[in-house]
């Protein structure tokens, strides 16, 4: 047919295999310009080359086929831009997750891992404005952000850095009570925010410097210290955000104090 390309010719031009072009036809993603009613041969026009290349590029970026179809078939440029932006945001999140995993793996695979410095401290009693809820482990970051934003907007003045309490069930069962707080002597009246007194607690404390990409590695090192020194965990893990996202967007400057409430479990404990 004059002016039309066979599926083989179109495949060579677009670098999409014949098998892929057939599948895209069946799914409605990229239909041929015409199909011979007698032979069933598919024919494409040169105007479809750009569309095929767009589809190939998006599929190469792991965009689901249904979203590619929506972009190709949507005449509204704003709607197309929104779909593309949403996918790019997902790719950025995936890239961040990959970077986090690489950071943790490099630290774990280091043949000479650095030793953490652990202090045994006894905290002082402290009055705080707190918010508590049973949270799934997968929702910890989102819940923390929302809760801290609510506390920040309600508490006029604090007397120290914010912190959090994480029940053991969050780690062992994937769901447990989480508490975030800010030290203050002026706790507002609120249904969700309540006054709370943190009692004096003996802690094994270490500091995690930098972003939280590999904070689990620091947790593991602290846990090894606790076990090695014959200590037992006696309550929820405590974190104090000496320097955190509320202070600076530069995550390399963050300092998170991780404290495990402990007591001596053997006569040889230090």
Strand content: 25-35%
Number of β-strand runs: 12
Task: Give the integer mean of the pLDDT values.
Answer: 86
Helical segment count? 8
What is the molecular shape? elongated
Spans where pLDDT lies below 50 across 5 or more residues: 266-270
Structural class: alpha+beta
Structural descriptors:
three-stranded antiparallel beta sheet; alpha+beta; nine-stranded antiparallel beta sheet; 270 residues
Give a brief description.
By secondary structure, this protein is of the alpha+beta class. It has helices at residues 7-14, 18-27, 49-60, 65-73, 77-109, 140-154, 168-172, 215-228, and strands at residues 4-6, 34-35, 42-45, 119-122, 126-136, 163-166, 175-183, 194-198, 202-209, 231-233, 237-243, 255-264. It contains 8 helices and 12 strands.
Could you explain the architecture of this structure?
- The protein is α+β, with helices and mostly antiparallel strands and 270 residues long.
- 39% of the residues lie in helices and 26% in strands.
- The protein has 8 helices and 12 strands.
- The protein has helices at 7-14, 18-27, 49-60, 65-73, 77-109, 140-154, 168-172, 215-228, and strands at 4-6, 34-35, 42-45, 119-122, 126-136, 163-166, 175-183, 194-198, 202-209, 231-233, 237-243, 255-264.
- Strands 4, 5, 6, 7, 8, 9, 10, 11 and 12 form a 9-stranded antiparallel β-sheet that branches. Strands 1-3-2 form a 3-stranded antiparallel β-sheet.
- β2 and β3 (42-45) form a beta hairpin.
- α3 (49-60) runs antiparallel to α4 (65-73) and α4 runs antiparallel to α5.
- It is elongated, with a radius of gyration of 28 Å.
């Amino acid at each position: 047919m004059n002016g039309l390309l066979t599926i083989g010719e179109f495949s060579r031009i677009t670098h999409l295999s014949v098998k892929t072009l057939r599948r895209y036809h069946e799914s409605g993603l990229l239909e041929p310009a015409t199909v011979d009613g007698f032979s069933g041969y598919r024919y494409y026009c040169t105007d479809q080359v750009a569309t095929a290349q767009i589809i190939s590029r998006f599929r190469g970026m792991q965009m689901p086929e249904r979203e590619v179809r929506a972009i190709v078939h949507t005449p509204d440029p704003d709607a197309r831009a929104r779909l593309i932006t949403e996918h790019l945001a997902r790719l950025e999140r995936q890239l961040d997750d990959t970077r986090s995993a690489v950071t943790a793996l490099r630290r774990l695979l280091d043949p000479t891992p650095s030793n953490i410095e652990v202090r045994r401290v006894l905290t002082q009693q402290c009055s705080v404005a707190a918010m508590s809820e049973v949270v799934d482990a997968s929702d910890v970051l989102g819940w923390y952000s929302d809760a801290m934003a609510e506390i920040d907007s309600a508490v006029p003045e604090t007397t120290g850095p914010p912190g959090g309490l994480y029940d053991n069930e969050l780690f062992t069962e994937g769901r447990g009570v989480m508490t975030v707080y800010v030290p203050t002597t002026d706790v507002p009246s609120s249904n969700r925010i309540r006054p709370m007194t943190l009692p004096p607690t003996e802690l094994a404390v270490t500091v995690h410097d930098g972003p939280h990409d590999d904070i689990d590695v620091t947790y593991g090192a602290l846990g090894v210290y606790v076990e090695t020194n014959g200590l037992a965990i006696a309550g929820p893990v405590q974190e104090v955000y000496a320097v955190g996202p509320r202070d600076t967007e530069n995550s390399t400057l963050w300092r998170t104090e991780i404290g495990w409430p402990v007591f001596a479990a053997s006569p040889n404990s230090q």
